[in-house]
Amino acid sequence: MSPLFRRKAAPQERLVTLIRKPGCHLCDDAQAVIEKVCGDLGVPWRGRDITEDRALHDQYWEQIPVVLVDGEQHTFWRVDEGRLRRALTG
């Protein structure tokens, strides 16, 4: 199927990943936004801790919190609710 004709993924088929570390207030803020948006849209999400994954630590330690949408980096440091919502519904 051509990429131009690929169907849009349903919210339940999307995945938001929050890459964070313990004690990070920006991470807590990001999680609150993710919980709200994903809860409203029925999108699953998961958290990953950079202190438990060396590869994530090496890749993202200067940017946390980092938000991935379907495995692609969406944002870092601060999560804009409207932008995340648009990424998941557009």
Automatic annotation (TrEMBL):
Q: Which Pfam families would you find in this protein's record?
A: Glrx-like
Instruction: Enumerate the SUPFAM superfamilies for this protein.
Output: Thioredoxin-like
TM stretches of this protein: none
InterPro entries registered for this protein in UniProt: Glutaredoxin-like, Glutaredoxin-like_YDR286C, Thioredoxin-like_sf
Q: Which PANTHER family has this protein been placed in?
A: GLUTAREDOXIN-LIKE PROTEIN C5ORF63 HOMOLOG
Q: What is this protein called?
A: Glutaredoxin family protein
